[in-house]
Each structure stands twice: as C-alpha cells, then as structure tokens.
Amino acid sequence: MADKKNKPRGLGRGLSALMADVTADPVSTSEPAAGTAPRNAEVLVPIEKVRANPDQPRRQFLQEDLDDLTASIKEKGVLQPLIVRPNKEGVYEIVAGERRWRAAQAARLHEVPVLIRDYSDLEMMEVAIIENIQRSDLNALEEAQSYKQLMDKFGHTQEKMAEALGKSRSHIANLVRLLHLPDDVQDLVMERKLSAGHARALITSDNASDLAKKIVKGGLSVRATEALVKKDAAGVNTNAAPKKAKPAGDKDADTRALEGDLSAMLRMKVSIDHKPGGEAGSITISYDNLDQLDELCNLLSR
After folding, report:
1. CATH assignment at residue 44
2. Which of 67, 172, 173, 287 is the most exposed place for a label (fewest CB within 10 A)?
3. Averaged pLDDT, groups of 10, the chain, 302 residues long
4. Catalytic-role residue among 42, 93, 98, 126
5. 278 exposed, middle or buried (CB, 10 Å; 0-12, 13-18, 19+)?
6. What is the extent of the structural domain holding 48?
7. Helix/strand/coil for 1
8. Is-catalytic flag, 98?
9. Tens-digit pLDDT profile for residues 231-244
C-alpha cells in the first residue's frame, strides 16, 4: 500500500487542477481564515502576506517585461489571480504567479487576488513548473529545464507531457537536447543572445563554445549558423585546426532525428553511424558520470 501511495501522480491530473484554478470567479473583498476558502473562490489578501516560492523553477524575470506588466496592473489591476498555499507562519506561499506579484508590488498595490490551495510540496512544485511551461515568454533553456524536472521528479514521459500540454513530442525532445550543450552556450541562450534555433544547430558540434561566440559576435542567422557548423565539422573553419573531412550530407535528417530522440530519452548524447547504402552501423552513447553509466547498464539489462 505504501508503494502505491507514494507513486508519482500522472501529469494530466496536475495540469487539470491548474487549468481549473485559473478559471476566475468573482473576487471576494474579505480575506478568509487560512485554508477555509471554497475551492473556486477568488479572494483579495494583503500583499505583505504573500511570499515567493523558495523553490520557484523560474529564475529569470526580465526587467523590461516586469515594467510592462507593472504599467498594465496600474491601469487595469491584476486580472489573473495568483495561486497560493497557506503556511504555518500565517502567510501565503506563491505556487503560480510570482511575476504578477512582483509587478503588483512595483505598482504599489495593497491587495492581490489569490486562489488558495492546500498543495503538498510535490504538488506545489509540479503546478509551478507546469504554469511556467504555459507561459509564452520562457526562453528555450528554461522550458527545457522545466520538462527535465517533470521527467526526473515526477516520472512523466515525453509522450504524456506532449498530450497534456498540447506540444508535439519532437518539440519536447528537441528542447531537452539543448541541455547537452556546454554551460557557456546554455548561458547565451538564457541571456537570449542565442535563439533555440541557433542552439539546436550547435548540438552536434564538438566545437560549440567557440562557434557560439562567433555567432553572437557576427549576429549570424540560424541558416548561417547551420552552414558554419557544417564547415567546422568538415575542417573548413580557418580558426580551428584542420579536421578530417566528412562526406557532405554524412547523416540524413532521419538519422539526426533518431539521434535526438534517443538522446532525449536516455538523457545522454547518442551518435548513430550508419553506413550509406548498407544495413550495418554503430551507436555510441556518451555518459557524463558513473551514475549515468549505472543507469544505462540498468536499462540495457532489463
């Protein structure tokens, strides 16, 4: 019974709860006792009684975006309630809506509308992650990290996430692959100096860090980036030591897509070497540490 109780919940249930929560009802003007609000009641609480979630998966709040939201709140108020849960100190922790709370503070509001929920720590984290994924202004790395958290912490598969979140499985797989890029390249994506398209083009490169600097410095387009990666792989890059040239079109689109799917599924870099015109080939799986090696051995022994 204990194992069944501790089994991770399905993503659909968490997402359904979130979507139900954001359906706003008329706002009550009085604050209820902590935890006593009806399930769908939206209430106003003093802004000083609301606290940020210390485990908020979203780490970057762009000042320009906050300024725009602050101006909107000054004119129209907070249109979408925050989702919060009460804590033992008599204040409310934000489950979803920290950006709105920050902007409301900047707009000097005294109260904010909230939906009060009695979430567990795991439910709080899951809803916070899903709420972030639903936002349109996440950069590619933040979205990829959110998907990875859902897979690692809650055991959600790419197929189940794609179905529940209205995304394609290839979209999720391609974003998760970005987490295999070097840290300095990931930082450029987080800073929005590189787009997701630029980053995807760099995934197969062994020289991603140096190429990323050239892309940013030259303001290269995604198409130009793809061409640069191909030249570098063929040893044409004049700033790098000559490499053994690879035949043009060495890997077709299907092979690269399969590499991406396997890399996302195993969370390790996978390279497929399939001989043109033949049926034989090889698969290379690269691991970063012994824990990943143990995980791979367990998968292969099943």
Report:
1. 3.90.1530.30
2. 67
3. 44 47 42 49 88 69 80 90 86 87 92 88 75 69 82 79 79 88 91 88 90 92 90 65 45 72 78 72 82 77 69
4. 98
5. exposed
6. 39-119
7. coil
8. yes
9. 888 776 435 443 44
